Amino acid sequence: MGKCPYAKPSFLGVRCEVISNVVNPAKHNCLNDKYVECEIFKKRDEFLGERQGKGTRGGKPDCRRCLFYSELTGRCVKLGVKVEDPTKPPCKGKEFKEATQ
Ligand code: SF4
Ligand code: SF4
User: Which residues line ligand 1 (CB under 6 A)?
Assistant: First the structure.
């Protein structure tokens, strides 16, 4: 059984990295395969796209423009690591995915 890649364990339940907020996992199906039906998940590009314009546009990979970056926590959701310097992605750009499409 899968779970949403944006669901992070939180003291109050699940923290959604898309909206940077605590959500009810039972309502959004964060912890099972049905997360693909979650409205927030479906609109993740829209939510995460608000970061457009930050970082170096069209240049080298920058975590601030990446779909997997959580600005609030300063962490990479994909690798599960703290990003010390967003201009130097820990993945070295290999996992970089433009947040706006
Ligand atoms: S609210 Fe939706 S997008 Fe956020 S973690 Fe849960 S399933 Fe994923
Ligand atoms: S480390 Fe790579 S995958 Fe993670 S947020 Fe930065 S660019 Fe994206």
Answer: 4, 6-7, 16, 18, 23, 28-30, 35, 38, 40-41
